[in-house]
Amino acid sequence: MRRPLIAGNWKMNGTKAEATDLLNGIKAGVAGMQKVDVAVCPPFPYLYIAQDLLAESAIAWGSQDVSQEPGGAFTGQVSAAMLKDFGCRYAIIGHSERRQFNGETDALIARKYAQAVSNGLVPILCVGETLEERESGKTEAVVAKHIDGVLDAEGVDAFAHGVVAYEPVWAIGTGVTATPAQAQEVHAFLRQRIASKSKQIADGLRILYGGSMKPGNAAELIAQADIDGGLIGGASLKAADFIAICRAGEDNA
Ligand code: 13P
Known about the structure:
Oligomer: single chain
Shape: globular
CATH architecture of the domain at 63-234: Alpha-Beta Barrel
Number of helices: 11
Largest sheet: 8 strands, parallel
Strand order of the largest sheet: 7-6-5-4-3-2-1-8
Number of strands: 8
CATH class of the domain at 63-234: Alpha Beta
Bound molecules: 1,3-dihydroxyacetonephosphate
Distance between the termini: 9 Å
């Protein structure tokens, strides 16, 4: 069975003081949960706070991006080895906001994925269609292209070391959530695409849903057969909401 994973993507939010409060709140709220994996992905400068506060807890932490390069003259970038140095377990890769605002391509994202895996980080590969793509019937083609970027460059074995997050762009930060049936359909499609190369790897692969997941809709989404947890944006900034979503994962495991 796949263990549910609830991961918070804080995006570019918070201060040192807010990060400290939020992490302490989450730590207290999820203590005792045993069947769900919990992770937080603060901005780079606050990773040391996660390392300080969460080291003795079951909560993992990760980054929101990683360089495609191992090191050297790449101004402004952060390497996978540096993230390991700060105790990161996960690295979000290819988030739609980075595709949209930083021009990231599937080829670049595949290189980032490889850097993460080769340094012992677990990449969380984000895929998802825009509203226009959905309305013109291109959802499967778009998410297939996002998955194939890594599949073709790195092979199916790369998915034995990663997590996928289906995040429909039209659901991110909009308050509009994919219905459980809409999400399940895409998750099943993604799993099938991996299964066509390796059923064993597909069966073990965690596929998270992201896009306006909240305490009020988390349980019914996570209850779907191919939804193995959530990648949470806005609701991960409020300890009570994030804890409630973790509880939904715990109860559904
Ligand atoms: P929201 O939960 O704010 O919609 O964000 C989802 C997301 O982008 C997580 O990576």
